[in-house]
Amino acid sequence: MIEDKNQQRTDLGQLGEFGLIEHLTQNIEIKHSSTLTGIGDDAAVLDFKDKKTVISTDLLVEGVHFDLGYVPLKHLGYKAVVVNVSDICAMNAKPTQITVSIAVSNRFPVEALDELYDGIKLAAKIYDVDIVGGDTTSSQKGMILSITAIGEADADELVYRNGANDNDLLVVTGDVGSAYMGLQVLEREKEVFKVNPNNQPDLDAYTYLIERQLKPEARKDIKELLKALEIQPTAMIDISDGLSSEIIHISKASGVGCNLYEEKIPIDPQFINVCEEFNIDSTTVAINGGEDYELLFTIKQSDYDKIKGNPNFTVIGHMTPESEGTHLITRANTKIPLKARGWNSLTENKE
Ligand SMILES: [Mg+2]
C-alpha cells in the first residue's frame, strides 16, 4: 500500500556501525540547558538542579508492535518518540531528552534508516527534546526500536497513579477510540492490497482515524493548561492500552472504585461512522481500543468549575469507595464491570 519511493539503496555494511551512528546523528542540536553533554562521549551528562528527574522507556518490535506493510518509517520514528513523551506527560512532567536505540537486519538500506530518523528528529523538534544518546546494532530479523524519554518537574507538580480519592472527578483529554479504528482500516486495506496490488485505496473517509493511528500526538500541552487553571490532578495516566485498562490502573493504585458514564465518553463523528461501517459497537472500542495517547486524570470535585466548558477536557465519571468496584454506567442505566482488555487482546478476540 505504501509505495517504496527509495530509488537509492546504500548497504548498511558500507558505513559500518560507527559510520552509521555518525551519519544518523549528524546535525543534532542541543537546546536544553539541562543537557550538559549529549551524543559524542561514553554517556550523556544531565543536570536538573533542584528538579525531579522522570524516566520512561519503551521497546517496539517489528511484527509485534508495528507492521512496516502500512506504517511508513518516518511515522514509526515519530510515533516511537511520541509514545515515550506521552509517559513523561502522564507524570505531569516536562519531557527534555530522549535516547534512541535501534537494531536492524541488513534488509534495510541506509536510506530507510534516514527516513526513520527523519521522523525521530521531527518529533524531537516538535516536542522540544534533545537527542542525547543511543545505540545502533544489527538484528537477525526485522527491526527493534527502543526509546528512553527523560523529563523534569518540581516535586510538588508530579502526579502519580495512586492519588485518586473517593468523589474525585474522572477527566479525559481529547477523544478516544479513533486510533484503534484507524488500525482496523489499515489492516483491511492491507488485505485488499494483497489481493490486488494495483488497487489504490480511497482513504478520504478515514483521514482522522488513520492519523490518530499513524501519527498520534502526546498531550504535552496539558501540564501548562492545568497549571494556568490552578488545577493539580490527584492521579494521572496516559491512554496507551485503552480507557478501561487505565481506569482500572488508577483505581487499583489509588484504592478506589469508579463509575464511568457511557454517554459522557468523547468520541469523534468519523469514529462513529466507521464503527457502523465495521459493524462494531462504538462504546466497546472507545473503552477498549488503545493508543490514543490522551491523558486520563482525576481532580477534586471543588475544581469542577475551573474546567467546566473547556473543550480540552471531558468529565466522564467519578471515583467511588473501593468496595463499589469499577463500572461502566450505560445509557440504559445498567452497570457493567470494567475489564482490563488492552487493544492487543481485543485484536485477538476479533472475529
Ligand atoms: Mg503510560
Automatic annotation (TrEMBL):
GO terms for biological process: thiamine biosynthetic process; thiamine diphosphate biosynthetic process. GO terms for molecular function: ATP binding; magnesium ion binding; thiamine-phosphate kinase activity. Pathway: Cofactor biosynthesis; thiamine diphosphate biosynthesis; thiamine diphosphate from thiamine phosphate: step 1/1. The keyword Disulfide bond does not apply. It catalyses: thiamine phosphate + ATP = thiamine diphosphate + ADP. Its EC number is 2.7.4.16. Mg(2+) 1 binds at T57, D58, D135. This is Thiamine-monophosphate kinase. It comes from Flavobacterium beibuense F44-8. The lineage of its organism: Bacteria, Pseudomonadati, Bacteroidota, Flavobacteriia, Flavobacteriales. The gene is thiL.
